[in-house]
Amino acid sequence: MQTELAEFIRHTPEGREAEAILRKCVHCGFCTATCPTYQVLGDDLDSPRGRIYLIKRALEGAEVTGKTRLHLDRCLTCRACETTCPSGVRYGRLADIGRAVVEARTRRTPWDRAKRAVLAWALPRPRVFGAALTIAQALRPVLPAALQRRVPKSEEAPAWPAPRHERRMLVLAGCVQPGIAPGINAAAARVLDHIGISLIEAPGAACCGALRFHLNYQERGRDDMRALIDAWWPMVADGSVEAIVMTASGCGATVKDYVHLLAEDPAYRDKAARISALTRDLAEVIPPDGPRPRRAALGRVAFQSPCTLQHGQQIRGKVEALLAASGYELTTVHDAHLCCGSAGTYSLLQPAIASELRGRKLAALQAGMPACIATANIGCLSHLRAGTDVPVRHWIELLDAAAA
Ligand code: SF4
Ligand code: SF4
Question: How many CA atoms, within 13 angstroms, populate the side-chain half-sphere of residue 183?
Answer without folding.
Answer: 14
